[in-house]
Amino acid sequence: MKIKANQLLIIIPVILFGGIVLTQVTGLWNTESTKTPQRIQDNADNPYDPQSISGSYTLQEVSDFYSIPVSILYEAFMIDDSYDPNIFKSKDIESLYAPMDVEIGNESLQAFVAIYQQLPFELVDVYLPEQAVEILLNTVKDLPQVQKDYLASHSIKVTLGDPNEVILDEETEETEDNLISGPTTIQQVLDMGMTLEEFETLTGAKVGFTNQTVKDFCIEKGLSFGEIKVTLSNALSP
Fold this sequence. Notes:
The protein is mainly α. Helices cover 42% and strands 2% of the residues.
């Protein structure tokens, strides 16, 4: 059976529109973001892993996933409440402060969230603003002494920089550059430019399969994820 051109003008839109409606009904069509942190040990009953917080997460997303009020996050990192938490991202934190010898940024937020909610997190040379440390000491009940000692030695006085120099990236897509976090797989590290031989040399362990996360690889091999993360990140830096 031949179909005339004028009939195609009617049939094609019907097919396309009908397909979209069908996938919406069945749940296959989803225009919303599906960015969700990895849970601790991949168990749906466990809380989200703070290592999964990447620089592209907004403060509102961090608040929602880890049940910490936005006001607490803003107070801890001296973020002016004029900034929209749906736009202000973890990676924007660093741009708030005047130049310092240490970095206060995404990893600092990860550490704050982990200690605030008492979630597993390896503290390795991560600094927090004095305000954040004070909140943790006054809010978290039965804070382990080892964490108190760590906070005492990794608390820093921060000074806000020029607000005119703070430029927020309003893109919603994941745009991390060479960031190794909880969900990062070995293959993703290799895709960043590292060879398998270099990875095994730097970690001192053989790789079984590359779709394993770096964190799970470290746990399996008895390695410190925090130290390996720093080592790999330094090797990937230009």
